[in-house]
Write a structure and sequence with these properties.
The chain is of the alpha/beta class. It has a single domain, classed as Transcription Regulator spoIIAA (2-Layer Sandwich), CATH 3.30.750. Helices cover 35% and strands 35% of the residues. The chain has a five-stranded mixed beta sheet.
Length: 110
């Protein structure tokens, strides 16, 4: 499976990232390459929509940890939204849900 990444700049330094597919050892480098330039901007706000991500392994968690570290270094924010249950469970099992802001509600109030 592949990973599709769509990045929209809502307003100055506010980004919405839409992911679809699987995040694993094969696709994680592509995800990191797409997100890191955003995370390294000072005072950016990054929201990653994971609604269409149906699988993620520990490699994907590693990417989000790297992105979180970069956002903290640049006084930026990272938020994950619309996680499917199995992906959200991965963050909960590892305890990463306590250090990464996760909003489990679907965008648009659904």
């Amino acid at each position: 499976m592949n990973l599709d990444i769509k990045i929209e700049e809502e307003k100055d330094l506010t980004y919405e990232v839409f992911l679809a597919g699987e995040i694993d050892a094969y696709t994680a480098p592509k995800l990191k390459d797409a997100l890191m330039p955003l995370a390294e901007k000072d005072n950016a706000s990054i929201t990653v929509d994971l609604n269409r991500v149906n699988y993620m392994d520990s490699t994907g968690l590693g990417v989000f940890i790297s992105i979180l570290k970069a956002t903290k270094e640049h006084n930026s924010d990272l938020k994950l939204v619309s996680l499917q249950d199995r992906v959200k469970r991965l963050f909960e099992i590892t305890g990463l849900d306590s250090i990464i802001l996760i909003d489990s509600t679907v965008q648009g109030g659904n």
